[in-house]
Amino acid sequence: FVFPQDGYIDFMEYVAALSLVLRGKMEQKLRWYFKLYDVDGNGCIDRHELLNIIKAIRAINGGDHETSAEEFTNRVFDRIDVNGDGELSLEEFVEGARKDEEFMEVMMKSLDLSHIVAMI
């Protein structure tokens, strides 16, 4: 599923994204998250992009954390940046999330819509 790059989300795009997040298979979700988080659209997620994602997730979800967003970002890169180039490719992102429970949990919480669906 690919969104047009017009800077807007129309109703059908919203419904498609919501359906994917709620009912999609794990790999489909991870691929969609990757595209969402690849802010500059270069096909990789760098440390700065991931750090901003982690900060945003923590701001939305709140709670106390044992590590800073910077430390968590560095740990993620140490564990899943297989080729050590300082960027996460789609493949590294998907495989890393599958193999690293902590990273997977954070990614799944980032778009957890269960509280919104419960209100609807």
Notes on the protein architecture:
This is GUC1A protein. Keywords: Calcium, Metal-binding, Repeat. The structure is a single chain. It is built from seven helices and two strands. It has helices spanning 11-23, 26-37, 47-61, 69-80, 90-99, 101-110, 114-119, and strands at residues 44-46, 87-89. α3 packs across α4 (69-80). The mean pLDDT is 80.
How do the strands and helices of this protein lay out in sequence?
Elements: H1 11-23, H2 26-37, E1 44-46, H3 47-61, H4 69-80, E2 87-89, H5 90-99, H6 101-110, H7 114-119
Antiparallel strand pairs: 1-2
Comma- or semicolon-separated keywords:
mainly alpha; 120 residues; two-stranded antiparallel ribbon; Recoverin, domain 1
What's the quick description here?
The protein is mainly alpha-helical. Helix content is 65%, strand content 5%.
- Rounded to an integer in angstroms, the radius of gyration calculated over CA atoms is 15 Å
- Low-confidence blocks of residues: none
Query: Structural class, judged by helices and strands?
Result: mainly alpha
Name the CATH superfamily classification: EF-hand
Order the strands across the largest sheet as they lie in space.
1-2
How confident overall, as mean pLDDT? 80
